[in-house]
Amino acid sequence: MMRLPFVILLLALFLAGCSVGLDYRRPDLDLPADYRDAVAPPEQAAVAALPWWQVYGDPTLKGLIQSALAGNLDVQLAAARVQEARALLAGARSPALPSLAAGVTASPTARQPGDDFTTSFLGGLFLAWEIDLWGRYGRATEAARAQLLATKAAQDGVYASLVASVAQSYFQLQSLAETAAITRRTIAAQRESLRLVSRLAAAGVSSAAEERQAENQLATTESLLPGLLTNIAATENSLSILLGRPPGPVALGTPAEPALPPPVPAGLPSALLERRPDLRQAEQQLIAANAKVGEAKALFFPSISLTGTFGAVSTELGDLVSGEGATVASPGFDLLQSLYVGGSLTANYRAALARLQQAGLTYRQTGLNALREVADALGRYGRSGDEIAAQRRRETAAREGLRLAEMRYRAGVVSYLEVLDAQRQLYAAETDRAQSELGRRTAAVQLYLALGGGWENR
């Protein structure tokens, strides 16, 4: 009779590899051969393969990104989530291992009428091991491992988003500072023009109306400066929070465009599956959902557990302490098959299938969004160069137009209204050119992020 548990053990170990449920296979996302608006050969290595410290060559920006990666609270939160997922993986493995406990149990002993009450004491080691015949705990471990990898991919996504956010805020701050400098320069020029018009009006050459117009133009431009300074302070505060420090001023370097080679190599769309953190996270969540289906299916099958008690038994507790109790060795097994549990097993299995379907749709949707983001970023970055060139030509023409208008006004050929209009056109051209340059830098940041770059850390 003692041979039966060992026979069951051998059979259980033989069947332990029979995991129920389908093994994961990556769905076909039907990715195109190339991105829309891609100008470089798709076989060329993607710019996303470059680490962020090579893309953002500004030493000041490099230092800010390093500070953010070290002090940002979202980065620390993502690291804590990875630690949690790692601990959950260790916990998911534990049910598949034997459990061993030591203790003492007391139970009443059967007696005849008139006998005294007696108690039987059992002390020793208690062993229990549920054999994972159908791979229930194996699937649970697989799901926990996939969730850990999904959490790590989410952590990479936090890195990439933070690098992009710091770079974008830094470039925006540079653009605001340049616009403020343009505004101050324009204010100074308009003040000089007002002094000239005032002198000419005092001499009777210009009219009081022209002097009022110059004053109005100057006041209009001066009113723009406080808003710019407010935006600069707000952007500095936001950037400081990204760095993990209280709001405060941020030092700036010389404005520079991210080092993306023209034409920008985007690489193959299939590379996004391994490169973009959100796609890797979505796939790992799909793997976890697939494993959860197998785990739910395994609950329909019987469970077999090996048990054993090794110790001593006595009607006196002192005999156990002194070692005088009778030795007990009692191996055994439990076989349990659920017959009716109110439909919970079926409901749990159907819910797991529904979650698997949701995870698959999320994975496909994430892939489509990734392709859209890359195509949008390629289009914006590719056309931003033409926009900047046109804005620079416009700025040059506006500056020359102002010079000619001032000459014509001094010569008495035109009224001061033409000078005021030329000043407005030059100011608009200069600020629009600064915005176009910011747009190109922002497009470069978004392209690098869309291709899956920026999550590498030194």
Automatic annotation (TrEMBL):
Keyword Lipid metabolism among record annotations: no
A Gene Ontology molecular function term for this protein is: efflux transmembrane transporter activity
How is it placed in the membrane, per its record?
Answer: Lipid-anchor
Query: Where is it located?
Result: Cell membrane
Keyword Lipoprotein attached: yes
Q: Which UniProt keywords apply?
A: Lipoprotein, Membrane, Palmitate, Transmembrane, Transmembrane beta strand
Q: Which GO terms describe its cellular component?
A: plasma membrane
Q: What is its main location?
A: membrane
PANTHER family according to UniProt: BLR4455 PROTEIN (PTHR30203:SF33), OUTER MEMBRANE CATION EFFLUX PROTEIN (PTHR30203)
The record's similarity note reads: Belongs to the outer membrane factor (OMF) (TC 1.B.17) family.
Name of the protein described by the UniProt record: Multidrug efflux system outer membrane protein
Query: What is the source species?
Result: Desulfoprunum benzoelyticum
